[in-house]
């Protein structure tokens, strides 16, 4: 089974591949200029909108192979010539370096508005910007000489997910095969069907009251048993069973590092979602909803009898590959801390200099925060947010409850894509100027003068969000407790 990050897909490129996209765009632009073609003329020649070609020339979008062939033909060059690694000129190489720097995590963390690189921008200005960025990056590197392995691995994994459009064909096929093995024919997947899947894999299910506190499930591969808690927060045990089964289906071995551990967790969650919300059935429902301009996370949730969070996350798996929509997903704690995040629509999540989202503070004006102030917890909260850092985004959000407190789950899209969603008529709208701390983090001058030397608060942020890399083969798991549990269960059998 391939791990996330090994598949190509539509959507924006990650920092590793942005140089290639920028180089390709510059080669197309330079060749177009050599032929004396306008953007509109080239767009007409390949039957595409000028805005789409502009995004390609600016390195913000990579063309699929059919379009790349059409562009090569219109520009009287070969595809291989367009895909050459080197920039078409020294000036283009300088522009690419500046553009790539401005799209990097370090530059974004500074909260500085990037400049628009145009013909009017002279070489000296570009060299100065590039030099300053390189020095800032060097200083950040010194400050983060020994960064937490967990945060770096998490950032790399998020970039890989973005490239894949958060869609993994191998996991979709594995889920489909599991469903076929139990004769699934449509509708919500029953708990009995999931138990039968486990049985066909050679495992029996055992619900116990003393499951090790640091685990969600424990598999005894020697005796063919899967142990789960008899005190699940919900009566629906399907997802925990499927996450346990995932290690068997995906052929997981003991993780060699934290990156392996994170990938295995992503695969387990993905497989659970792909089984409970089968691809073809989900796409059929979502495609019909898109046709009616009524896409709704609630409808997806209710159609398959899953949690809102699972429905929202599953939507991100299918949105880009199957619905041609770029999206973002957020899970935020009531304290404002970002717990999970995914995007391929260009929204700028708060992050550190390494590009890590989780643990950062979400702007108070974003939907993921404003939803907590709404008295109606039975209906979704819709909101438009004008971002100072780029464009307007629409989000739908709900508040859920967990043992750590309340958290919000949000799905959002760019303004131009909101036409496909229910809730687009909402009058609710805010503005965000983050990461400028004057947006929502800095108190007024009067309050600051009065309280800054007298206040001493203790943070209520969940400690798990700030934890460093746990030790052990399975990070965060007490191996002694697990082995003692299995030994005791084997004696009882």
Describe this structure in words.
By secondary structure, the chain is α+β, with helices and mostly antiparallel strands. The protein has two domains: about 15-145, lambda repressor-like DNA-binding domains (434 Repressor (Amino-terminal Domain)), CATH 1.10.260; about 170-430, Arc Repressor Mutant, subunit A (Orthogonal Bundle), CATH 1.10.10. About 45% of the residues lie in helices and about 10% in strands. The protein has helices at about 15-35, 40-45, 50-55, 65-75, 80, 90-100, 105-110, 125-145, 150-165, 170-180, 190-200, 240-250, 260-275, 280-290, 295-305, 310-325, 365-370, 445-450, 480-490; strands at about 205-210, 215-220, 225-230, 330-335, 340-345, 380-385, 390-400, 405-415, 430. The strands form two sheets. The chain has a six-stranded mixed sheet with strand order 5-4-8-7-6-9. Helix 11 runs parallel beside helix 12 (about 240-250). The protein is globular. It starts with 14 loop residues before the first helix and ends with a helix. InterPro entries: Cro/C1-type_HTH, IrrE_HExxH, Lambda_DNA-bd_dom_sf, TransReg_Diox_bact_type. Belongs to the short-chain fatty acyl-CoA assimilation regulator (ScfR) family.
The count of β-strands is 9
Main sheet makeup: 6 strands, mixed
Q: Under the CATH scheme, which class of the largest domain?
A: Mainly Alpha
Shape: globular
The helix/strand order is HHHHHHHHHHHEEEHHHHHEEHEEEEHH
Low-confidence stretches: 5-19, 142-147, 461-471
Strand content: 5-15%
**Tally of domains:** 2
**Helix content percent band:** 40-55%
